[in-house]
Amino acid sequence: MRLGRTLAAALMFCGLGFAGPAFSETTVRIAWYSDGNEGEVLLDLLKRFEASNSDIKVVVDQMPFKAINETLPVQVASGQGPDIARVVDLGGMSRYTLDLRPYLKDPAYWEKNFGPFLTWMRPDGDTQSIPGFMTQLTVTGPFVNKTLFEQAGIAMPGAKATWDDWAKATKAVADKVGAPFPIAIDRSGHRVFGMVISQGGKVFNDKGEPAVTDAGFKATSQKLYDWHKSGVMSRELWGSVSGATYRGANDEFKNGQVVLYMSGSWQIAQFDKTVGNAFDWVAVPNPCGPGGCTGMPGGAGLIAIKTTKDPKAVGRVMDYLAGEDVLREFYGRTLFVPGHLGLSAKGVDYPAASPLAREALTVFTKGVADVAPLAYQVQAYRYNRPMFTAVISRLGQAVSGETSLDEAYKRIDADIAQQIAERKK
User: Fold this and answer.
1) Residues ≥6 apart with Cβ < 8 Å to 32
2) Distance between CA 23 and CA 227 in Å, rounded?
3) Which residue among 20, 128, 225, 270 is the one 20 to 30 A from 256 at the CA level?
4) 347: pLDDT confidence band, cut at 50, 70 and 90?
5) What is the pLDDT of residues 402-424, one digit of tens each?
6) pLDDT tens across 122-148, in order?
7) What is the DSSP letter of 349?
């Protein structure tokens, strides 16, 4: 009897052993950060994917933006990274990307709809790979607390206003209503470069190499330095962190403390939720200068990581998330400017957007046409991240009083050369 039970147990064990592989589940990990509600939307969309793909489990590790920029590259370089990641340093992460082309149902669909942005993600010398797609296309630009202007009885500058016009107007408003931040600009090199190009900066030399600290750059730096001294900008923001650390002014803006906040289109969903109708917030065109009225293009890309152990499963997840119907819903619910050419042409509905959010989306979408060709060149440059980090780190030291502007210029050039050399190793 005992032998019979043992034999039955053995047969059951063998049966489970054979049945196991048929129900095996592959786990695909996604490293993700959010500016607004996009993490929630992603999880909802992935539930539908898993319902139709029971052999794949998708785990989303939601991380702070700082961790995506600073910690994730170290993890990926050591082989301990995720299978997929949402990143903004597309050039810096390009060396770690997986070419999805062999694992996609229709590579031509990807080329047609994501073609211009694939070059932002590809490694040096690569003209064919498909590393991922843009979860959003962004454009930098200002948000203004229109209510503060109305309370102060001061007219907002017009569409072709200069940075000096806005500095004068916002300071007058802030002084009259007691707002502590006339102008707040993200502590980000990416944000500064839009202003640099507007001020006539050329960024590159004739050989296409970085030559950042030219007359246009120095004019921008002097403005930022002077604004911190005069109170147009506050050291409380840029001076609260050091190095290349990012510092936004989201909380200060939503609390009604900022007159003009220079950030970008990715903030629309967040402000629609956190500000609501507490005050009238509007997007306005980028201020002008000798070089035009440009912002910086950009966005966050979802890339596949080449160290993944199951590229086929990764390909299936990416194919699903990049599908036109899924992306239409994703962009519509997150209030993002599409990074998909087909949807850009057809248009995306934003059913949950408030009138203020819809107007802001219209301003930023129109602003794409005003983006200078040089701004696209900077964004596509493989080593733009060393330029961004060097600029914000050294300018941050100058406005905090740790060094002079002239010394900052010297260090910026040296830092960029050093960081590019290190990346090329």
Assistant:
1) 39, 42, 60, 61, 62, 63, 85, 86
2) 63
3) 225
4) confident
5) 999 999 999 999 999 999 999 88
6) 988 899 999 999 999 999 999 999 999
7) -
Q: Which fold has domain 140-297+360-423?
A: D-Maltodextrin-Binding Protein; domain 2 (3.40.190)
Decide: 273 and 350 in contact? Cβ < 8 Å. no
pLDDT digits (tens, 9 = 90+) for 275-332: 988 999 999 999 999 999 999 999 999 999 999 999 999 999 999 999 999 999 999 9
Of 302, 301, 303, 296, nearest to 379 by C-alpha is 296
26-137+298-346 matches 140-297+360-423 in fold: yes
Cβ count within 10 A of residue 124: 11
Listed by start position, the domains of the chain span 26-137+298-346, 140-297+360-423
Cβ neighbours of residue 130 closer than 8 Å, sequence gap 6 or more: 99, 100, 101, 104, 107, 110, 111, 114, 118
CA distance linking residue 307 with residue 84, whole number of Å = 10
Q: Could you say which architecture CATH assigns to the domain 26-137+298-346? A: 3-Layer(aba) Sandwich (3.40)
